[in-house]
Automatic annotation (TrEMBL):
Catalysed reactions listed for this entry: [protein]-peptidylproline (omega=180) = [protein]-peptidylproline (omega=0)
EC primary class: isomerase
Region Disordered, residue ranges: 1-83, 227-270
Entry-linked InterPro entries: FKBP4/5/8-like (IPR050754), TPR-like_helical_dom_sf (IPR011990), TPR_rpt (IPR019734)
Superkingdom as given in the UniProt entry: Eukaryota
Classification via Gene3D superfamilies: Tetratricopeptide repeat domain (1.25.40.10)
UniProt-recorded name of the protein: peptidylprolyl isomerase
Keywords associated with the record: Isomerase, Rotamase
Compositionally biased intervals (Acidic residues): 44-73
Database matches in SMART domains: TPR (SM00028)
Organism: Attheya septentrionalis
Length: 289
């Protein structure tokens, strides 16, 4: 495959998008133009989202079967956070391996398992940077897999989960933007890319996608403009607009005509009054005005 997934370390660099476009091979690279992988299965838009704990066997090894306990309601011991992180990293690594081999379904499951393992360490987004970084890596990878499986809605939702951890994460913004575009929401895609571009103005993948979307928006605006111009033409389907304009011109002409007639009538009336005044003065041998 021509796209790499992030290495299995707990922390993940949010600048991987830029590094991939600049020619470097990173393990969590963003594809410049994401496309659906031919090896993916048919879309299943109802696949559980990242926060769904759909793998009941993830924490099976936490069960405490001690027969020495006299209490029927004993609670299982809390697992060491370090162990949980190591498990999440292992799931991430397995997901990367499945992704590289083209097994997107199993890659998706591993990324979701990894997320489920450590999500409890970031309740209300209070986890440390190591946990947040690992969550971001798992979720952005899962978003990419969903996109390749032709599940843009799920890809968008998973990316949104990642953005709830870090609202300015460039990779998550990029993932959600391409999903928005696939769903036909160019304005939302443009909004996400502008935020990403503001944070990383030299990110090649973000720049290319933003330029591409702006061109598409300009094309749509041009088509709308031409449609409006046709509406004003005589032979166009919007002749009613032309008729309204012609009607307005007629109305103004009538108003002007009425005003002129009123002025002429007033002048005629004043002339008659002046003539009557002159006759009256003449009859009294008074000088005519």
């Amino acid at each position: 495959m021509d796209e790499n997934i992030p290495p299995a370390e707990a922390s993940s660099n949010t600048n991987d998008v830029n590094e991939q476009e600049s020619g470097g091979k990173t393990s969590d690279d963003v594809p410049t133009e994401p496309s659906v992988d031919s090896t993916s299965t048919s879309p299943m838009e109802d696949e559980p989202k990242v926060d769904d704990d759909d793998n009941a066997d993830v924490n099976d090894d936490n069960d405490d079967d001690s027969s020495d306990s006299d209490s029927d309601d004993s609670t299982p011991p809390v697992e060491d956070p370090t162990e949980l992180i190591l498990k999440a990293v292992s799931h991430k690594e397995d997901g990367n391996t499945f992704f590289k081999s083209g097994d997107l379904n199993r890659a998706s499951r591993e990324y979701r398992k990894g997320t489920s393992v450590i999500k409890g360490l970031n309740k209300k987004n209070t986890g440390d940077e190591q946990i947040k970084s690992l969550l971001l890596s798992l979720q952005t990878n899962l978003s990419m897999v969903c996109f390749k499986q032709d599940k843009p809605k799920l890809s968008r939702d998973v990316a949104s989960k990642a953005l709830s951890v870090d609202s300015t994460n460039v990779k998550a913004l990029y993932r959600r933007a391409v999903a928005h575009r696939k769903l036909g929401d160019l304005d939302a895609a443009c909004t996400d890319l502008k935020v990403a571009f503001k944070k990383e103005p030299n990110n090649t993948a973000v720049r290319k996608e933003l330029i591409s979307i702006k061109k598409e928006l300009d094309t749509q605006k041009e088509k709308a403009k031409k449609g409006l111009q046709r509406a004003f033409s005589k032979g166009g389907g919007g002749s009613f607009l032309y008729d309204d304009k012609e009607e307005e011109m007629k109305r103004k002409a009538q108003e002007k005509k009425k005003k002129k007639e009123a002025e002429q009538e007033e002048l005629k009336k004043r002339k008659v009054e002046w003539e009557d005044e002159c006759v009256t003065r003449m009859s009294k041998d008074e000088p005519v005005i």
